[in-house]
């Protein structure tokens, strides 16, 4: 007795292909969403790493503030060991701890500045302390997305001010504040404040 072999009908094949196509589209959409989340998480982690590095770099520089004024660019006077409002720089200061592993003919004190260029926080430093007009600073961009950058100084009487040296400070270019407060407003992380105490 012969039995007829049964296969899939054309309609059954069409239905199976349609179901497979729908499931493939759903899976592709899910994979795309997961991939998008991974990319977003990686970008957020990179931004957070940049933020931590920038805040740590600022705190390290300020904590190493030295009472070393510098000659101005034309050699006619002195710039304070720490100052604000010099051109576009939010803060400029002399710091210690500049390592010299190859024994270059220079000291261990370095002049650095922090500036806001558009929405980018940049750190500037000079190869010499008593620079001239021909000495260009080296620049490192630390953090983007900055909306605002402000600096405040705690003087010896316990008063906060946005200018250093404060008015009526006696004109000592070596004078240092007791603490410096850095305020940053970031487009993603909001308002960030850090107070760094100055030793000595």
Question: How big is the Rg?
Answer: 30 Å
- The poorly predicted ranges are none
Widest beta sheet: strand line-up: 3-4-5-6-7
Gross morphology: elongated
Largest sheet: 5 strands, antiparallel
| Secondary structure tally, helices | 1
Mean pLDDT across all amino acids: 86
Number of strands: 11
Name the CATH class of the domain at 60-143: Alpha Beta
The arrangement of helices and strands along the chain is HEEEEEEEEEEE
| CATH domain topology of the domain at 60-143 | Pili subunits
**What class, by secondary structure content?**
alpha+beta
Percent strand equals: 25-35%
Q: Gap between N and C termini, in Å?
A: 107 Å
CATH architecture of the domain at 60-143: Roll
Helix content: 25-40%
* CATH superfamily annotation of the domain at 60-143: GSPII I/J protein-like
Can I get a quick summary?
With 200 residues, this protein is of the alpha+beta class.
């Amino acid at each position: 007795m012969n039995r007829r072999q049964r296969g899939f009908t054309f309609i059954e094949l069409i239905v199976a292909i349609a179901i497979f196509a729908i499931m493939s589209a759903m899976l592709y959409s899910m994979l795309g969403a997961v991939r998008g989340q991974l990319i977003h998480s990686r970008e957020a982690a990179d931004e957070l790493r940049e933020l931590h590095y920038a805040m740590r770099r600022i705190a390290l520089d300020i904590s190493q503030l030295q009472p070393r004024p510098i000659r101005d660019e034309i050699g006619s006077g002195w710039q304070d060991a720490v100052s604000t409002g010099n051109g576009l720089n939010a803060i400029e200061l002399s710091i210690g701890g500049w390592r010299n592993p190859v024994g270059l003919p220079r000291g261990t004190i370095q002049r650095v500045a922090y500036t806001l260029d558009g929405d980018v926080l940049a750190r500037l430093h000079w190869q010499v302390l008593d620079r001239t007009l021909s000495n260009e600073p080296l620049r490192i961009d630390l953090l983007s997305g900055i909306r605002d950058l402000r600096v405040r100084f705690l003087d010896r009487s316990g008063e906060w001010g946005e200018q250093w040296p404060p008015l009526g400070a006696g004109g000592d270019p070596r004078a240092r504040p007791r603490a410096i407060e850095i305020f940053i407003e970031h487009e993603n992380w909001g308002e960030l404040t850090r107070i760094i105490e100055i030793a000595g």
